[in-house]
């Protein structure tokens, strides 16, 4: 297995692992808000629709690649997202947690927070 990649066997479970960049090892609720919930608004309706979702990544490697571009985010929250939650697929391992899920609910899915190198 490549360095920095974690493998999970989730067959027979009711959740799937995803990753979200956060500010510290005890992330505040704000780290689980969508850009729209944080007050960002866009004129383009397609961009605004995506801004209403919360971004997560399907691998630690994908989250780590993004962290290299965001030096203030040095931690990654490991989330166990229930299989019944319909995520919107994106590019390069990016997924969107649907609008209306709520930051508190998403934070409740955190099972671990890892410090990135």
> Any idea what the radius of gyration is?
14 Å
- The proportion of residues forming helix, as a percent range, comes to 10-25%
Counting DSSP E segments of at least 2 residues, the number of strands comes to: 6
Global geometry: globular
The structural class is: alpha+beta
The first-to-last residue Cα distance is: 19 Å
Going across the biggest sheet, name each strand in turn.
Answer: 1-3-6
Output the helix-strand order.
EHEHEEEHE
Q: Provide mean pLDDT, rounded.
A: 88
Strand content: 25-35%
- Number of DSSP helical runs: 3
Largest sheet: 3 strands, antiparallel
Unreliable residue stretches:
1-11
Task: Please tell me about this protein's structure.
The chain is an alpha+beta fold and 117 residues long. It has three helices and six strands. The chain has helices at residues 45-51, 60-67, 103-108; strands at 15-22, 54-57, 75-82, 88-89, 94-97, 110-115. The protein has a three-stranded antiparallel β-sheet with strand order 1-3-6. The model is unreliable at 1-11 (pLDDT under 50).
Would you spell out the secondary-structure blueprint of this structure?
Elements: E1 15-22, H1 45-51, E2 54-57, H2 60-67, E3 75-82, E4 88-89, E5 94-97, H3 103-108, E6 110-115
Antiparallel strand pairs: 1-3, 2-5, 3-6, 4-5
